[in-house]
Design a protein that fits this description.
Length: 283
Amino acid sequence: MLPAVVKLCCGISYPHLRNVAGLQRTAVAVIGQEITHLQGWRCMQHLIGAPAGFNYTEDKSEARTNVQSKGDRLFYVQQGHKAMRNALRMLEDSEGWRVEIAESNGDVICSKVMPDARKVFRLEAVLDGTVDELYDLLFVRVEEMNLWNPSIQQIKILKQVGPETMVTYEVSAETAGNLIGQRDFLSVRHSCKQESRVYLGGVAIQLESFPPQAGFVRAEDGPTCIIIQALDKDTRKSRFTWLLNMDVKGWLPTSIVNQALPRAQLDFTRHLRRRLAVSATLG
């Protein structure tokens, strides 16, 4: 989301871990099934058809606006839909992926070098949470993400386009050992929620009304996406697939960026697991 949801934390080193035989073939097969399911997607039609006077919950202390113009709504939805489609195509392409990290708990990160020489990273994990719980944490209550993820300073919804689309401003936290430094992000986030799966997509956007902020380097997400699917044998658990595609900008060595990004994915997933565990205890 969104991943837009990774935030750059910690140091640059991480132990080299073993490869997992057959992992890429399995992951590609799963992603291929998701692409097939997504071909029947109708979220776009549903969102564009939302009434112009639809009321959204609003906190007056937030710099948030509801997009009422049909043309503006369509623009943001198209940007989100395009980002989702392009990110899924990256995942669907099975060529060139290599295992970067394989954790003892089953989390695996693979990487791939794109034609523009940028590396993208794909994380595969199984989480102890339902599709609805994860959708709520990662999209519906995105502004609360800093409460459970210390690598995020803030996320604010600037434009609420509709139930499935929003424009957000995000700032990463200034944490010890973070050699990349603080970054801010301006992104369109888009979602599609079905019965047993959720797709979350995102991409950087430029707005004249919200230029880069003083004191930050504005990084760019996307296209990126997250796929959350209920496990067939246990609907209380979900398969979590995350394509991280980010240009951190600034004058940083590529080697530092390519070590920091997968580490940030692991850190984010660890914080997400802790949040799910707290919810399970309280519930």
